[in-house]
UniProtKB/TrEMBL annotation, chain A:
Keywords: ATP-binding, Cell membrane, Membrane, Nucleotide-binding, Sulfate transport, Translocase, Transport
Lineage summary: Bacteria, Pseudomonadati, Pseudomonadota, Betaproteobacteria, Neisseriales
Keyword flag Translocase: yes
Translocase as UniProt keyword: yes
ABC transporter domain ranges (all copies): 3-237
Gene Ontology MF terms in the entry: ATP binding
Pfam families in UniProt: ABC_tran, CysA_C_terminal, TOBE_3
Name of this protein: Sulfate ABC transporter ATP-binding protein
Family matches, as PROSITE patterns: ABC_TRANSPORTER_1, ABC_TRANSPORTER_2
Automatic annotation (TrEMBL), chain B:
Name of the protein in question: Sulfate transport system permease protein CysT
PANTHER family named in the record: SULFATE TRANSPORT SYSTEM PERMEASE PROTEIN, SULFATE TRANSPORT SYSTEM PERMEASE PROTEIN CYST
Job description of the protein: Part of the ABC transporter complex (TC 3.A.1.6.1) involved in sulfate/thiosulfate import.
Species annotation: Parachitinimonas caeni
Subunit structure: The complex is composed of two ATP-binding proteins (CysA), two transmembrane proteins (CysT and CysW) and a solute-binding protein (CysP).
Gene: cysT
From TrEMBL, chain C:
CDD domains: TM_PBP2
Function as written in the Swiss-Prot or TrEMBL entry: Part of the ABC transporter complex CysAWTP (TC 3.A.1.6.1) involved in sulfate/thiosulfate import. Probably responsible for the translocation of the substrate across the membrane.
Compartment(s) of residence: Cell membrane
PANTHER family found in the cross-reference section: SULFATE TRANSPORT SYSTEM PERMEASE PROTEIN, SULFATE TRANSPORT SYSTEM PERMEASE PROTEIN CYSW
Species for this entry: Parachitinimonas caeni
Pfam family name, one: BPD_transp_1
SUBUNIT field: The complex is composed of two ATP-binding proteins (CysA), two transmembrane proteins (CysT and CysW) and a solute-binding protein (CysP).
Keyword Transmembrane helix among UniProt keywords: yes
Gene3D superfamilies linked to this entry: MetI-like
Residue intervals passing through the bilayer: 21-43, 63-90, 102-123, 143-163, 249-269
Domain of life per record: Bacteria
Lineage: Bacteria, Pseudomonadati, Pseudomonadota, Betaproteobacteria, Neisseriales
Gene that specifies this protein: cysW
Protein name, per record: Sulfate ABC transporter permease subunit CysW
Keywords associated with the record: Membrane, Sulfate transport, Transmembrane, Transmembrane helix, Transport
Domain ABC transmembrane type-1 residue range list: 67-270
Length: 345, 277, 291
């Protein structure tokens, strides 16, 4: 089931949550909506689900217009940020809910419901918790039950709102991998919302980066990370050094737009090359601090005009060179992406 | 474990001592007088008093009317709480404040006002009389007065629960294909049920003991529209202290039972569904 | 504002408009019949024969003495329970000890006891045939069928109001601020006056308003211990009963209208206090979010 979003707009009062958004979700893919809070990603997810109605535009499920279809009839699975488990029902009853509320003609017989629920609980590896109440589960368990409940109605699309937002770091990592595996098994078209770039890059087939109600870029994790389409995407996905042509001269002219006025070069810390001797297109800098965090070593440098620059090396490369704090170095970008300066930022 | 956990704050001894002393003096000591007085009766005498025909009729009326009134309040209270938390309409704040009127209006005032309205020549009674319905001076009048008295209990216990109910729960039900009516019956109602039951029990308990608002509208006809508290006063006026005490002790026992029930509801609910965050 | 829309809910979980209208109208009709009409009836009956007779009824010496007695009883009973409420909530909310929930249940007890039973128990202790009856008679002290008994009965029925408002409030506030004050060198009393009291003032006011309303309006319990001596042991509610039973409806409703006005003032102050504390809480949360 593919989902097409065609020029969808939504405002809340004066706040523009979505500004003419177009997007196509391919059948069977796992798509991440990534962006800072207030960028409209959750609103878009809720509009796909039918929990909000767009002010303008269309939602098409497999080519068919679903904009006016009520959430009940859309057959979407939705996993809420805080799970929204029914606390007066056991885990079993929670998962069975979607089957039990069907009209009599389409409701499966009791034995079938039992079989299906246990199958799903096995899928999320929590069959042994069937008789517990949500209050007796850990956060990670609740999250998986919420997923099983959403899958019980055999949804055409699965929508997840910040699925790992309320969990602690360790459980989060585990569940991420688990979700990826689960998606490979069930293969239902899935969209999840996150503000965590690492999560989006690690789990999704494709990532949609959003900002201020607009889509900035759509692409595979590699595409959005390595070739960001806009300055926003560059800055949102990882650390970046900015070099302005006005200030840093020819240094900023490594990529396209070379020679143009008012160009900014975006360089990731691991793309900063450090030299002990000056060369063509280098800038002198002083090494201030050295921090070894895990497998990488971070170097904080300062240009002569006071601008800070961050560089990143592997431990081996650092061990090789043995830079010292206070040392004079010359920096050069290996690759950079240039954008014409936006004076509003 | 020690009686009290250590704390750096001062004043526990004084505050706790005064609390227990005052509670004992004003509440517990006089209440124990009732129990001691009752136990001075022989059981046969006690049984004779509390099972007399007139007393039994009064119990029947008091409990029956209290139950019906609490039941009316269960539905009306849920309706009012629902409308006040879910919908917006002009004057809502005012209506919300008005719900507490039965708490604030002296019972005697409520009693004479309701009697005037529901008497056969009253504003509402006039309309009901041609239909053959008489409210004032009949058991129905007792129900009306007790409904008035009990209304805020259900509204005020249910309202906060409805307010805190996460919108996500209802959205989850809708996503899973539940109709609005199914969502109400299977998700919302079970969540507010403990509050509803607590409100019902509170309204019922209050109605059983109610005196001021009822005696004007009830007509107080023995064996027909005479409530238990009125019987106690009647016995007192005839200086039949033993009789009054016996009947009162039964009322007190029932009050204790109802407090127990409320605590049980809350304990049961808290144990099973208290969500750990 | 004037459209009958549900607040902060998405269209997906809203009822159809006709259901919303139907439920709202049903609720308002019920409230109009059960709450608004009785309230309106009090005032229309009181003014049925015009303002002159209304004033006349209120200027009766017996009415005036009933008002005076009601004020005296309230002025004694409410402060007594205020002090108790503060002490009880300090002990219960700020400390942990065994049997706390039993103590709370016992404090709530007077709410569940019938007012008539409340009056009766004092008759059993202080009445002519009660425990202390003979001793009191010997020393010529009158409690039952006199003002002291009425004060006691009023204290009983308004017993839990202040404590019940303060306990949850003080529990929610915890003891951090008090501990900070003590660390800064404040004495116990200073901590209470300068830290605790300002934090609980709205809850305290709320509790006082409620017990005040109940104290002035109490009927059953006071009726049992008063003896109904005209001009001496009649409070306003008791006076209303006597006038009503004498078919003096205008005077009965005139006195009742004072009590109804009191109820309206109570509701107004209560709503105002709720509004104040809501705003204060919202402001505090806004500050937290800003940082």
């Amino acid at each position: 089931m593919s989902i097409e979003i065609q020029s969808v707009a939504k405002r809340f009062g004066n706040f523009v949550a979505l500004d003419n958004v177009d997007l196509k979700v391919e059948t069977g893919e796992l798509l991440a909506l990534l962006g800072p809070s207030g960028c409209g990603k959750t609103t878009l997810l809720r509009i796909i689900a039918g929990l909000e109605t767009p002010d303008a535009g269309q939602i098409r499920f497999h080519g068919e217009d679903a904009t006016g279809t009520h959430v009940r009839e859309r057959q979407v699975g939705f996993v809420f940020q805080h799970y929204a488990l029914f606390r007066h029902m056991t885990v079993f009853e929670n998962v069975a809910f979607g089957l039990r509320v069907r009209p009599r003609q389409t409701r499966p017989p009791e034995a079938e419901i039992r079989r299906r629920v246990h199958e799903l609980l096995e899928l999320v590896q929590l069959d042994w918790l069937a008789d517990r109440y949500p209050a007796q589960l850990s956060g990670g368990q609740r999250q998986r039950i919420a997923l099983a409940r959403a899958l019980a109605v055999e949804p055409k699309v699965l929508l997840l709102d910040e699925p790992f937002g309320a969990l602690d770091t360790k459980v989060r990592k585990e569940l991420r991998r688990w979700l990826k595996r689960l998606h490979n098994e069930v293969h239902v078209t899935s969209v999840f919302v996150t503000h965590d770039q690492e999560e989006a890059l690690e789990v999704a087939d494709r990532v949609v980066v959003m900002n201020k109600g607009k889509i900035e870029q759509v692409g595979t994790p590699e595409q959005v990370y390595d070739t960001p389409a806009t300055p926003f995407v560059y800055q949102f996905l990882g650390d970046v050094n900015l070099f302005h042509s006005r200030v840093h001269g020819g240094f900023a002219e490594v990529g396209e737009h070379a020679g143009a006025e008012g160009v900014v070069a975006y360089v990731r810390p691991h793309d900063i090359e450090l030299l002990r001797e000056p060369a063509a297109l280098t800038l002198p800098a002083t090494l201030d601090h050295i921090r070894a965090i895990g497998p990488v070593v971070r170097l904080e440098l300062r240009l002569d005009n006071g601008d800070p620059v961050e560089a990143e090396l592997s431990r081996e490369a650092y061990a090789d060179k043995r830079y010292l704090a206070g040392e004079r170095l010359h920096i050069r970008p290996r690759t950079a992406q240039n954008f014409v300066e936006d004076y509003t930022i | 474990m020690r009686f009290r956990q250590a704390s750096v704050l001062p004043g526990f001894g004084l505050a706790f001592g005064y609390t227990v002393f005052y509670l004992g003096l004003v509440v517990l000591l006089p209440l124990s007088a009732l129990i001691i007085k009752t136990s001075s009766l022989t059981f046969d005498r006690f049984w004779e008093v509390v099972t007399a025909e007139r007393v039994m009729a009064a119990y029947q009326l008091t409990f029956g009317a209290s139950f019906v009134a609490a039941l009316i309040n269960l539905f009306a209270g849920l309706l009012v709480a629902w409308v006040l938390t879910r919908y917006r309409f002009p004057g809502k704040r005012l209506v919300d404040a008005l719900v507490d009127l039965p708490f604030a209006l002296p019972t005697a005032v409520a009693g004479i006002a309701l009697t005037t309205l529901y008497a056969p020549n009253g504003l509402i009674g006039e309309w009901l009389a041609p239909l053959g319905v008489q409210v004032a001076f009949k058991p129905l009048g007792v129900v009306v007065a007790l409904t008035f008295i009990g209304l805020p209990f259900v509204v005020r216990t249910v309202q906060p629960v409805l307010q805190e109910l996460e919108a996500e729960l209802e959205e989850a039900a809708a996503c899973l294909g539940a109709s609005r009516w199914q969502t109400f019956g299977k998700v919302i109602l079970p969540t507010v049920l403990p509050a509803l039951m607590t409100g019902f029990t509170l309204a019922f308990a209050r109605a059983i003991g109610e005196y001021g608002s009822v005696i004007f509208i009830a007509g107080n006809i023995p064996l027909e529209s005479e409530i238990v508290p009125l019987l106690i006063i009647g016995k007192l006026e005839q200086y039949d202290y033993a009789g009054a005490t016996a009947i009162a002790s039964v009322m007190l026992l029932i009050s204790f039972g109802l407090i127990f029930v409320i605590n049980l509801i809350q304990w049961w609910h808290g144990r099973r569904h208290g969500m750990r965050k | 504002m004037h459209s009958l829309h549900s607040s902060k809910r998405s269209g997906a979980t809203d009822e159809p408009a006709w259901v919303r209208w139907l439920l709202t109208v049903a609720a308002l009709v019920f409230l109009a019949f059960f709450l608004l009409l009785p309230l309106a009836a009090v005032f229309t009956e009181a003014l049925r024969k015009g303002w002159d007779l209304y004033w006349e009824a209120l200027k009766e010496p017996e009415a005036l003495s009933a008002i005076k007695l009601t004020l005296i009883i309230t002025a004694i009973a409410v402060p007594l329970n205020l002090v108790f409420g503060v002490a009880a909530s300090w002990a219960i909310a700020k400390f942990d000890f065994k049997g706390k929930s039993l103590l709370i249940t016992l404090i709530d007890l007077p709410f569940s006891v019938s007012p008539v039973v409340a009056g009766l128990i004092y008759v059993l202790v202080f009445g002519a045939q009660g425990w202390l009856g003979p001793w009191l008679a010997e020393h010529d002290i009158k409690i039952i069928f006199a003002v002291p008994g009425m004060v006691l009965a009023t204290v009983f029925v308004t017993f839990p109001f202040v404590a019940r408002e303060l306990i949850p409030l003080m529990e929610a506030q915890g003891t951090d601020e008090e501990q900070a004050a003590l660390v800064l060198g404040a004495s116990g009393w200073q901590t209470f006056w300068k830290v605790t009291l300002p934090n609980i003032k709205w809850g305290l006011l709320y509790g006082v308003i409620l017990s005040n309303a109940r104290a002035m309006g109490e009927f059953g319990a006071v009726s049992v211990v008063s003896g109904h001596i005209r001009g001496l042991t009649n409070t306003v509610p008791l006076h209303v009963e006597i006038l009503y039973n004498e078919y003096n409806f205008v005077a009965a409703f005139a006195c009742a209208s004072i009590l109804a006005l009191l109820a309206l003032v109570t509701l107004a102050v209560k709503t105002w206090v709720e509004w104040r504390s809501e705003r204060q809480m919202a402001a505090e949360q806004a500050v937290v979010h800003d940082h």
